Amino acid sequence: MKLLSVVVPVYFEEECINQFITEATLALDKLDINWEIIFIDDGSTDATISIIKKYTDLNKKIKLIQFSYNHGKQLAVTAGIKHASGDFILTMDPDLQDPPEEIGNFLKEINKGFDIVLGIRKEKRDKFLNNLFSKLFWTFLEKTTDIKIPKGISSMRIFNRKVADKFLEYKEQNRFIEGILMHIGMKRGTLFIDQRERFAGKSKFSFRRKVKLAFNVIFDYSELPLKIAVKLGFYLFLLGILFMLIIITLKFTLIDFQIGWPSLICSIILGSGLQLFFIGIAALYIGRIYKETKGRPLYSIIETTNF
Ligand code: UDP
Ligand code: MG
Question: Which domain holds residue 239?
Answer without folding.
Answer: 224-294
